[in-house]
Amino acid sequence: MPGVEILYSSEVLISGGFNEEPFIIAFFGCMFMGFIIGTIISAVDSEIEWMFFGTCIGIILGLLLGALASNTCSTPEVYETHYKVLISDEVSMNEFLEHYEIVDQEGKIYTVKERTEVE
């Protein structure tokens, strides 16, 4: 757009990253299996400590496998381009705002992103 000088552009993360569902499934699955195995060993050995030990091992394995599963099944990351621009006095702000959305302003420098049409 004439009268708009782009000083800098950058990619900004909009969404993505950690996925909770695989983490929760792996964590509770491992914790439950550790509890069951500890309970079986406790019943055979007649010592209640095995149930507590099995649950603790299940929690530790659940955290590790949950983190691995969450990382493997992470949601895709979505980026958006932001521009730092200077706007001259000859630019109509109405026309400018039809094409760009102002995200931030630092003095005369505007941080903007392109408008996306929602249908």
Question: Any overview of this molecule?
Answer:
The protein contains 3 helices and 4 strands. It is α+β, with helices and mostly antiparallel strands and 119 residues long. Strands 1-2-4-3 form a 4-stranded antiparallel sheet. α1 packs antiparallel against α2. The longest helix has 26 residues. The mean pLDDT is 86.
β-strand number: 4
Q: What general outline do the C-alpha atoms trace? A: rod-shaped
Number of helices: 3
Going by helix content, strand content and strand pairing, the class is alpha+beta
Largest sheet: 4 strands, antiparallel
Q: Give me the Rg, rounded.
A: 27 Å
- End-to-end C-alpha gap: 24 Å
Strand order of the largest sheet: 1-2-4-3
Uncertain runs are none
Roughly what percent helix? 40-55%
Strand % is 25-35%
Average pLDDT, all residues? 86
The sequence of SSEs as H and E is EHHEHEE
What structural keywords apply?
single chain, 119 residues, alpha+beta, four-stranded antiparallel beta sheet, 4 strands, rod-shaped
Please provide a brief summary of the model.
By secondary structure, the chain is of the alpha+beta class. The chain has helices at 20-45, 49-72, 93-99; strands at 4-17, 75-87, 100-106, 109-114. A hairpin with a 2-residue loop joins strand 3 (100-106) and strand 4.
Show the helix and strand layout.
Elements: E1 4-17, H1 20-45, H2 49-72, E2 75-87, H3 93-99, E3 100-106, E4 109-114
Antiparallel strand pairs: 1-2, 2-4, 3-4
Helix pairs in contact: 1-2
